[in-house]
Amino acid sequence: MASRTATRLVHPDRRELRFTTVLAALGDPVRLAIVARLADAGPDGELACTTFALPVSKSTQSGHFKVLREAGLIHQRNEGTRRLNRLRRDDVDARFPGLLDIAVPQGREVITNW
Amino acid sequence: MASRTATRLVHPDRRELRFTTVLAALGDPVRLAIVARLADAGPDGELACTTFALPVSKSTQSGHFKVLREAGLIHQRNEGTRRLNRLRRDDVDARFPGLLDIAVPQGREVITNW
User: Fold this and answer.
1) If you measure CA to CA, which chain A residue comes closest to B106?
2) Which of A27, A39, A81, A90 has an alpha carbon 20 to 30 Å from B56's alpha carbon atom?
3) Mind listing the pLDDT tens digit for each residue in A56-103?
4) Cα(A65)–Cα(A88) distance, rounded to whole angstroms?
5) Hey, what domains does chain B have and what are their CATH numbers?
């Protein structure tokens, strides 16, 4: 089996989300762009890591997804050889109402200006 | 003269404020607490660095103020041997409406839990 499928992906509970950790996670153009893309994929939208076409190396990209997951912003799961990502919009909106409404348009701007 | 008074304090213009830089600056409990204290000092409220009683060393504290200033969140000026800080609420509200309304209460919680 590939090692990836054996990796346990840890996700904080909604109540464990910390505001400063979430802000720090969103405080990077690549991560903000990822969040905007996932937001635009809709509430149940899942996107594979490979579909993002980010202007960074593959390992840097993986690091960014990890930061987002550990902050509680995204849910990740493995499906075969793919890693699928979903925005935890309900959880983030419940804990920090309005934050994603501000952040997502800013993330779209990042993408537009790439 | 003290070297401090000779230091030129650089402040970005309102239009130069970047969303991700502002989020990264707010994404730390000490800096978020500083912002909340300054917000509660009112629109023209200025507080000297020494009045914050933060749970970090003096040099770490200076670093945090610098990050906030360079992100455009606070204005700093020297008055004698004191360095006075003011929240750039108008500028941040103009560029990122609603962000401080979310962040300031979170910063107050940080202070409460210290």
Assistant:
1) A19
2) A27
3) 998 999 999 999 999 999 999 999 999 999 999 999 999 999 999 999
4) 13
5) 15-112 (1.10.10.10)
ipTM of the complex: 0.92
Give the tokens for residue A26: 């969103």
Amino acid at A21: T
Enumerate the residues of chain A whose CB falls inside 8 A of the CB of residue B103: 19, 23
B101 to chain A, any CB pair closer than 8 A? The answer is yes
Neighbours of B50 (CB within 10 A): 11
pTM: 0.93
**What CA–CA distance (Å, rounded) separates A91 from A14?**
6
Output the six-digit token pair for B90.
């108008």
Judge contact between B5 and B52, C-beta under 8 A: no
User: What is the band of A1 on the pLDDT scale with cuts at 50, 70, 90?
Assistant: very low
Residue A71 to residue A20: CA distance in whole angstroms? 9
Q: Coil, helix or strand for A61?
A: helix
Give the dihedral sign, CA A91/A94/A95/A97.
positive
What is the rounded distance in angstroms from the CA atom of residue A22 to the CA atom of residue A69? Answer: 10
Cα distance from N-terminal residue to C-terminal residue, chain A: 37
